């Protein structure tokens, strides 16, 4: 909410109410959504079948070669290969071949390979629609500009919320990046650049005017920051100006 308040205040965003969401979808809306869902399913099914065919093509040549060796009587079973590794004599291909096997060998190896691919693909079934991955809409696909009505942002309401908004805006103006700091026991996490690329270097704790704390609190904040390798920054409002106090351990403890 602090970021939303800043964007609205700076004129970077407008808060609106979508009146269409209060209305039930029409039959035309349902038909359009069903058509869109079917198109997504067909695209994903085509992609799955294409990837499966590529996998089969990679092994089709080996399968074809194995079948040719087996048809010519030159195929060596796993048991025979184990015997050969143990020092047994080489099997005589001529004695294991069947009469006339050379005449039965296919001349067109490419045709044999295509037959193997077709045979394997006939066993592959396209994924059913229940396994389709549908995109998550970030906006209502049936919304029109006339459905949007500007509304006021009902935030902040309390002194604590006002302080958070002021601190967020002040740090943002200084060029910092901020995210929620609740998981580290603070109000914000402070980044020098994109949070997706960098770690936070500070935990910001907002303290309302008149908030009292003792040495136990200072030790608590200091140990917290030290354990996660971050500086704890206490932010408060002094004469309508945001003031900061940084806490971090120094030296060897």
Provide structural commentary.
With 253 residues, this protein is of the alpha+beta class. The protein folds into 2 domains: 22-80 and 107-142; 156-247, Trna Endonuclease, Chain: A, domain 1. Helices cover 43% and strands 13% of the residues. The protein contains 7 helices and 7 strands, in the order αβααααβαβββαββ. It has helices at residues 2-9, 27-72, 78-85, 93-96, 109-122, 159-173, 215-227; strands at 16-18, 148-150, 177-180, 188-191, 202-206, 231-238, 241-247. The strands form 2 sheets. Strands 3-4-5-6-7 form a 5-stranded mixed β-sheet. A hairpin with a 2-residue loop joins strand 6 and strand 7 (241-247). Helix 1 (2-9) packs across helix 6 and helix 2 packs across helix 5 (109-122). The chain is elongated. The model is unreliable at 89-107 (pLDDT under 50). Residues 163-244 form the tRNA intron endonuclease catalytic domain. One of its GO terms (cellular component) is nucleus.
Concise synopsis of the structure shown:
The protein has 253 residues and is α+β, with helices and mostly antiparallel strands. It has 2 domains: 22-80 and 107-142; 156-247, 3-Layer(aba) Sandwich (Trna Endonuclease, Chain: A, domain 1), CATH 3.40.1350.10. The chain is built from 7 helices and 7 strands, in the order H-E-H-H-H-H-E-H-E-E-E-H-E-E.
Poorly predicted sequence stretches spanning 5 or more consecutive residues = 89-107
First-last Cα distance = 39 Å
Quaternary state, please?
single chain
Task: Give me the secondary-structure category.
Answer: alpha+beta
Principal-axis shape equals elongated
Give the SSE order as H and E letters.
HEHHHHEHEEEHEE
Mean pLDDT: 81
Q: Give the biggest beta sheet.
A: 5 strands, mixed
Number of domains: 2
Q: What is the gyration radius calculated from CA atoms?
A: 35 Å
What proportion of the residues form beta strands (DSSP E)? Answer: 5-15%
The count of DSSP E runs of length 2 or more, i.e. the number of strands, is 7
Biased composition (Polar residues): 87-101
Protein name: tRNA-intron lyase
Family: Belongs to the tRNA-intron endonuclease family.
Keywords: Endonuclease, Hydrolase, Lyase, Nuclease, tRNA processing
């Amino acid at each position: 909410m602090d970021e939303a308040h800043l964007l609205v205040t700076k004129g970077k965003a407008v808060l609106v109410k979508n009146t269409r969401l209060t209305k039930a979808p029409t039959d035309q809306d349902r038909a359009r959504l069903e058509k869109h869902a079917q198109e997504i399913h067909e695209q994903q099914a085509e992609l799955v079948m294409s990837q499966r065919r590529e996998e089969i093509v990679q092994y089709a040549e080996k399968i074809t070669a194995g079948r040719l060796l087996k048809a010519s009587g030159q195929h060596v079973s796993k048991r025979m290969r184990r015997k050969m590794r143990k020092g047994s004599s080489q099997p005589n291909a001529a004695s294991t071949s069947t009469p006339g096997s050379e005449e039965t060998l296919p001349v067109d190896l490419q045709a044999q390979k295509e037959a193997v691919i077709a045979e394997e693909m006939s066993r592959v079934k396209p994924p059913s629609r229940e396994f389709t991955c549908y995109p998550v809409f970030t906006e209502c696909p049936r919304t029109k500009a006339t459905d949007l009505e500007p509304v006021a942002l009902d935030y902040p309401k309390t002194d604590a919320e006002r302080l958070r908004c002021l601190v967020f805006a002040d740090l943002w103006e200084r060029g910092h990046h901020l995210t929620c700091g609740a998981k580290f026991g603070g109000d914000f996490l402070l980044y020098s650049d994109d949070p997706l690329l960098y770690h936070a270097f500070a935990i910001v704790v907002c303290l309302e005017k008149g908030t009292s704390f003792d040495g136990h609190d200072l030790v608590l904040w200091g140990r917290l920051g030290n354990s996660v390798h971050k500086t704890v920054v206490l932010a408060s409002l002094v004469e309508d100006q945001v003031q900061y106090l940084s806490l971090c351990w120094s030296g060897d403890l």
